[in-house]
Design a protein that fits this description.
InterPro entries: DUF2470, Haem_oxidase_HugZ-like_sf, TMEM254. Keywords: Membrane, Transmembrane, Transmembrane helix. The chain is mainly alpha-helical. 66% of the residues lie in helices and 10% in strands. The protein has 9 helices and 3 strands, in the order ααβββααααααα. A 3-stranded antiparallel β-sheet has the order 1-2-3. The protein starts with a helix and ends in a 5-residue tail after the last helix.
């Protein structure tokens, strides 16, 4: 009997695990759909001319206007536009060269298509879409400058207080922390930043394995160096960007 109960419990645990996995997958898919919807709205609102170029060249409609994305996913998008005197609606589906994992990857390919259309239509100046996304990477290094400045000032004051017993012209520091206390705080900060750097290294490894085109060697070095120096001013933007790349929201 005990063996039967064990089998039942094992079955229940396995079934619960499968249900949790299905729920997580469904939530991730819902998040991704929402992210793509926001991307579609951004393109339709801010890059109308670029979409018109796509319709005029690839749709072979020189008078195409009011082009809009009617649908987009990780495999491609559908473009709808109006043409002719009667403003008849037409559409065309575009398939990406490969399945896209990030919005930046999607935008780069659309930007490339816009560039092809622009050149074919003899427009010399790059569109805003090309300028913005041609080289943009989802996991490119980006420091929280305000937070970094505050961190740098605090570290500088702490180092000054730990080196000098009466840190003029910052004598008030000695009233808050003694020289030995300042030294201990600096050492603790270094340990915390070192730990954050190790975590950041792990995040970079995972992110680069999943999205190899979104982070360069230089990006990774900058993330790690700045995390060690500035702590959360670098590590938090890295985590946010990685979370967003995996389909999450800010």
């Amino acid at each position: 009997m005990s063996w039967l109960y064990f089998q039942k419990d094992e079955f229940k645990i396995g079934w619960s695990f499968l249900l949790m996995n299905r729920v997580n997958i469904k939530n991730q898919e819902s998040e991704r759909v929402l992210v793509l919807k926001n991307l579609q709205e951004e393109l339709n609102k801010n890059h109308k001319h670029s979409l018109d170029l796509l319709a005029r060249h690839f749709g072979e409609r020189k008078d195409a206007a009011n082009a809009r994305l009617s649908d987009i996913d990780d495999g491609g998008f559908t473009l709808r536009w109006e043409s002719g005197e009667k403003k008849e609606a037409e559409d065309m589906s575009f398939a990406f060269r490969s399945k896209k994992n990030t919005n930046a990857d999607i935008m780069r390919e659309i930007s490339d298509l816009v560039g092809q259309a622009r050149k074919a239509l003899n427009e010399k100046e790059e569109s805003d879409l090309e300028k913005t996304y041609k080289t943009k990477r989802a996991l490119a290094f980006e420091l929280d400058n305000k937070s970094a400045v505050i961190t740098a000032v605090l570290l500088g004051l702490g180092a000054y207080a730990s080196l000098y017993g009466n840190p003029l012209p910052f004598g008030f520091l000695d009233l808050i922390f003694s020289q030995s206390m300042s030294t201990k705080i600096l050492k603790l900060t270094a340990i915390v930043h070192a730990f954050e750097t190790v975590v950041a290294f792990g995040v970079c490894r995972v992110a680069r394995a999943a999205f190899p085109e979104e982070m360069t060697d230089r990006d990774e070095r900058l993330w790690l160096i700045n995390t060690f120096i500035f702590g959360v001013s670098s590590s938090i933007p890295l985590v946010k960007k990685t979370f967003k790349a995996f389909g999450g929201r800010d």
